[in-house]
């Protein structure tokens, strides 16, 4: 039955139709339950808070009553002059007293009763000191330490609390105390601490049994001190920071501290050292190994750990402390356990950072620097005694402190440097990252407190005081680490490597051996020393601790014994040959069977030809590997008789000879132990090569013979090439960087004066066959991506090779790569709408032949990179008339060559010639001081760039020194002889001076003369006050050479490079050495191969190779002098030099065009011959040759034409 009413629908369960769902009901119930729970928790929390505050209030009230009672009783006893027994002192005085000062915060200024608590300390400590000094056992408080078990327990508890209170007093800044309390309380606290931890000060103990128990109590107390709960070491660290600011210099210890402060400081350092001394004495008394000895050893290690973590890591600790306290830190009982603690890998993780609220802002910043750095600096300073006002004589002949175990010392420093390594790498990455951006972009980069070691602060400051403080800190850090870059430090470590027992009087080690608790340790070896100095090199470089070359490198380079030791070690570890000389090559030759065994004479002859071919291919013109003279031209015929197949086999054998199998995996194939040794070797030797003179390298052959130099070069060449070609990036970056620098130095020295076979440099890439276009593309990609970072060795593959060691590819292939760069650049310019060839948009200029430099400068200067466009030249003769002829390239070539010849002429004044026979060019040092001098130098750089860009050869060649600067390469000390022979001779005298260099009265200054005025220039900041000594004479030689070769010429060099870079990218020129640059620019020798020209000459107009006039022409050219042949080439092509890669690459090809002239047939034997002169079309490299009949006529007319130096009017 259907319901039809309109009333509300009622369910059978009694609810309305809009009932609440089950889920909603459960959620509502849960919310109500949570609300009730929150109410209950709130009520419980309120009760807890009330209970806490009520308890605190009751406690405070009880403390007030206890304090009042204690004060009243203490005053009453003082008035009665009543002495306390040990039990009464413990129960009636110390117990309530320690209750009142149960928290260290009770002394802070924020605590309400801090002043009252401070006023109770002095009388209580005085009473305690009187009790400890009492001779009556019943009255001596420390008698409880040898009493019953209960008494001992009470004494131990109270002693711990007393020492905690003493530490809190020492760490407190005293802001809540009166002036007298600030003066008295720290001293009293330290006296109490010293007295309680030294049983010899307990006067009442005379019986041996009591002394043994007393010493046991002290030992237990000392063990508790080093567990870290007393706060002693944190308090000492805070006290030193608060009361001893960092001095300005290493010898400036400020005013002597007041007597009270000195006593407090001495007592604090005594307490810092006491645990190690007490535990060391306890260990020395125990001969057998048992559980007690093991526990003592653990406590001893813990004591050393906590001392190192809190005291030895105080920045500039040695300079802060009074000098009379430093010797205590240098005692073997202190140094030995500290060195062991630091020598454990991972030990520096215990250096927990702390916040010093009372230190200055800069000192708080120093706290963010890894504590390993401060431990390193303090340790080096301690073991050598530096930083304590040492005299100059001691600096020269220093030594390590007596009893120092050098093995532990080196191991500890290596661990500290290893801990610093990630921080150093982060710092270097940030520096490289910042170098990619402008200063505005780098403002937001977090310096992470790294720039403390730089000239600019890491964060802005309100004034300049922060910058000055940081510079002072940097100088202090240098002073602390100074022993590392002194010669005595290195020499004594090397001596210890030879004699393991050298300076090995380690008291702690003797105790360990007596207890048989430590196995015999590995003696100091060369590997550990190499690791140490390699790590120091990285640190000094990262911290920028020196301006100029790293001083460690000076010490390494001066060492007479280091390089032979390192090389002998490497030769053995890397399985390198001792030499690869003539005997080795002969062995290789005889091992190959080139002739038939049946015919011995034929085999002998073939071997001789093969050897001759090998020698001829591997020798370059000039001085050979052994200083031999240039190969004569006549001997070149031997090459023609050698079978090409055998010649190829000979070259392959030479390449195999110089490619070492052990180096073919690159740095990845170097054993891990050998990496630091090889890195140090490369770093130090690269530095030595810069200042090594030719006499030392070639004549004395020290430190290596020329045979060894070849092995070193071949080893590095193979390793670096394979490292760059490896796809993996796991190679050691530091090793690669050092190896690349050393390899480059060796290669550049070989380019200057050869000592290696050319096959050595080409050997690693001998089998590499890559299309020129691909190689050029890879080179451009690497150059573009690495130009800002300057980390070319990080790029793998052929691109990295071309950017880093391009010499492994033949010169001809690199020239092709260079020309491909130019070709691609011209294509890009053409696509951009610029005119790079004849046609619309070219630059038109008109120049006078007798003012070619001035006119060229006036019309072309300021165009910059627009000089890449095509330039049309018209010449104006002496009458002011334009010469006939259109410029399709030939006139511009003539203009460029004549302008360069005039501007680079020494008579013009901008360039001078070297003192060598070649008379090569380099800029005049005074060019920058002339009017428009730098602008003219920049313009000449553009001219050279345009010549290279268009492939036009010029007349002059530049000094290798000047070219090295253009290429960004290093110079050698002997390059100075080409600039200043007398200065070079004097520097060589100083370098080899065996007596005391101080006798020469030199300092780090140089007098510069310019236009009659003399000015003194400092080679280093403050150089006038730095005398030249035997220690720094190598640095002086380097600085003087650097000034003459670099600093003095820098403005001129930079201007020339700026102009050159407008047309030629620096990375393009990086493909070549200085000698190769001159070849690229001027084409090498001032002559050419007539047969090569003849083989690539075209004939037009009716001429053929068999024409009579053509035959006469080649006969005349062959008979010409070298300068006449060059004049002929310039007459036809406007350039006197042959194309760099031969006439095959001359575009357009050299052409002889027939000019028909009437002449009687009998002109061959007599009568008038053709009167017309030869002419040329330099745009098309065409010689227009009349049909001469007689040889004499052709010679006369041709010589007149090429030597007249006339223009187009000639014909």
From TrEMBL:
Name of the protein in question: HECT-type E3 ubiquitin transferase
Pathway involvement of the protein, from the record: Protein modification; protein ubiquitination
Key word DNA damage present: no
Bias (Low complexity) ranges: 622-637
Gene Ontology MF: a single term: ubiquitin protein ligase activity
Matching PANTHER family: UBIQUITIN-PROTEIN LIGASE E3C
Protein role: Probable E3 ubiquitin-protein ligase which mediates ubiquitination and subsequent proteasomal degradation of target proteins.
InterPro entries linked to this entry: E3A/B/C-like (IPR044611), HECT_dom (IPR000569), Hect_E3_ubiquitin_ligase (IPR035983)
Organism: Riccia sorocarpa
Catalytic activity: S-ubiquitinyl-[E2 ubiquitin-conjugating enzyme]-L-cysteine + [acceptor protein]-L-lysine = [E2 ubiquitin-conjugating enzyme]-L-cysteine + N(6)-ubiquitinyl-[acceptor protein]-L-lysine
Sequence segments annotated as region (Disordered): 622-647
EC number: 2.3.2.26
Protein keywords: Transferase, Ubl conjugation pathway
SUPFAM superfamilies linked to this entry: Hect, E3 ligase catalytic domain (SSF56204)
List of catalytic residues: 1179
Transferase keyword on record: yes
Protein family: Belongs to the UPL family.
Domain annotation HECT: ranges: 867-1211
